[in-house]
Design a protein that fits this description.
Layout: E1 3-12, E2 23-31, E3 35-43, H1 50-61, H2 69-73, H3 81-99, H4 104-107, E4 114-121, H5 126-138, E5 143-147, H6 152-166, E6 171-175, H7 182-191, E7 199-201, H8 209-218, E8 223-225, H9 232-241, E9 246-250, H10 257-269, E10 273-278, H11 284-295, E11 303-306, H12 307-312, E12 321-322, E13 325-327, H13 340-346
Parallel strand pairs: 4-5, 4-11, 5-6, 6-7, 7-8, 8-9, 9-10, 10-11
Antiparallel strand pairs: 1-2, 2-3, 4-13, 12-13
C-alpha cells in the first residue's frame, strides 16, 4: 500500500463569539482503491498557500508507504509541527482503514474503551463563562479548563463564580495562556489557593520551563506546562526541574501522535501527571487523541478537548460522550467519517 494523492482544505470556525477565528487545515491522504485517511491541525492557514504546499509535498509522499511513519516525520517538507501532526494523523488513519483495524492497535492496543475528557470552556464575559461551565457540569463534564483573561481580578471573580455555580466536585484547570509576568502570576496564585485548582497551566509570558519552575517553587497552586513542551527532551527537562507536577501534551505542538507517545513515556518514567490536549475543533484530532489515550495506561488524567468540538464538529458520526467519558471508536482507522458536504460548505476561498 502506497500513498497516491494528498489534498488540503482550509475551513474557518463558524462561531459568532470569535471576531477573527483561526483557520483549520484538513489533510486527506489517498491510497489505491480510493482509501482515505484524514488529519487536522489549527493555525493561521490560508487558502492561497494550499496549492504550493501540495506541490511541495506530493512528490515526496507519492509512492511512500504510510506505515513508514518515522521516515515521514523526518521529511524537510514537514518541518512545521502542525503540518507534520496533520499528515501523520492522516497516515495513521489510512493505515487503519487499509488493514481494517482501529488506530489504537497501532499504538499498543485498547487499554481503555472510554477516555476521560476535560472541556476547554470558551472565553467571554465572566457570567457567560460561568453559565457554560454550569451547563457542562450538568451534562456530566466534571473536569473543565478555564481560560485566563489576562486580568487577575477578573480571573479570580470568574473562578469564584464558577465554584459557586458548580461546587467543589468539579476539577478545574486554569489555562494562563502565557499572559502574566512572574510577579503577577505569583500574586494570582495566592488569590486562588482556596479554589482547589487541579493545576494552573502556562501562566507566564515567558514560555520557558526554568521560569515556570521558579514560579512553581514559590506558590502552593500546582503548576502545569504545555506550550513549552515540544519534544521528549522538553519533558525530560521538566522532570529534572522537579517542581512542575503536570505535563499537558498538545498533540499539534509536539508534532504528532508518535511524538506525543514518546513524550508520555518520558513523563511516565519521571512519575509526572500527563494528559493530552487538542486545540483543533473539527473532531478529527479529538478522535485521534482519544485513540492514543485508549492505548497508553499513563494517560489517566482527563484530556483536553475544545468546547466547539461538541457543537461545530465536522464528523458524520461523533463518538458517544457520557459523564465526561468519550467512547473510543472501534472501526478502522479513526473509526469516524468526515462530513464532506459540510467541509465543502466551510471551505475557505
Amino acid at each position: 500500500m502506497t500513498i497516491t494523492d494528498v489534498d488540503f482544505t482550509v475551513v474557518h470556525q463558524a462561531d459568532a463569539r470569535r471576531a477573527a477565528a483561526k483557520s483549520l487545515l484538513l489533510v486527506r491522504l489517498t491510497a489505491a482503491g480510493n482509501v482515505e485517511g484524514w488529519g487536522e491541525a489549527s493555525g493561521s492557514w490560508r487558502d492561497g498557500e494550499l496549492a504550493a504546499r501540495r506541490e511541495a509535498l506530493l512528490p515526496v509522499l507519492l509512492g511512500r508507504s504510510p506505515f513508514d511513519i518515522e521516515e515521514l516525520l523526518l521529511l524537510d517538507e514537514l518541518r512545521d509541527p502542525a503540518l507534520r501532526s496533520a499528515v501523520e494523523m492522516a497516515s495513521c488513519d489510512l493505515i487503519g482503514r487499509c488493514v481494517g483495524q482501529p488506530m489504537f492497535r497501532w499504538f499498543g492496543g485498547c487499554f481503555r474503551r472510554r477516555v476521560p475528557l476535560t472541556i476547554r470552556v470558551p472565553s467571554g464575559p465572566t457570567v457567560q463563562v460561568a453559565q457554560i461551565s454550569r451547563e457542562l457540569a450538568q451534562q456530566g463534564f466534571h473536569s473543565q479548563v478555564i481560560l485566563a483573561s489576562g486580568e487577575p481580578e477578573q480571573d479570580v471573580r470568574m473562578i469564584e463564580l464558577i465554584r459557586r455555580n458548580v461546587g467543589d466536585h468539579i476539577r478545574l484547570r486554569l489555562d494562563g495562556q502565557a499572559r502574566y509576568d512572574l510577579h503577577t502570576a505569583r500574586d494570582l496564585c495566592a488569590e486562588l489557593e482556596y479554589a482547589q485548582l487541579e493545576c494552573f497551566v502556562d501562566p507566564l509570558l515567558i514560555m520557558e520551563l526554568h521560569e515556570l519552575a521558579t514560579l512553581a517553587r514559590q506558590v502552593n497552586v500546582p503548576i502545569g506546562a504545555c506550550r513549552a513542551l515540544r519534544s521528549p527532551a522538553d519533558v525530560l527537562l521538566l522532570a529534572r526541574l522537579g517542581s512542575i507536577p503536570a505535563a499537558v501534551l498538545d498533540v499539534q505542538h509536539v508534532g504528532g501522535l508518535t511524538s506525543a507517545r514518546k513524550c508520555a513515556a518520558v513523563a511516565e518514567a519521571a512519575d509526572l501527571s500527563v494528559s493530552l490536549a487538542c486545540g483543533s475543533w473539527a473532531g478529527i484530532a479529538a478522535v485521534a487523541m482519544a485513540q492514543l489515550a485508549a492505548a497508553l495506561p499513563v494517560l489517566r488524567a482527563a484530556n483536553e478537548c475544545a468546547y466547539e468540538t461538541l457543537n461545530h464538529h465536522l464528523l458524520l458520526d461523533i463518538p458517544e460522550v457520557v459523564d465526561g467519558l468519550v467512547a473510543v471508536p472501534q472501526g478502522p482507522g479513526l473509526g469516524v467519517r468526515p462530513d464532506r458536504p459540510q467541509i465543502e460548505q466551510l471551505q475557505a476561498g
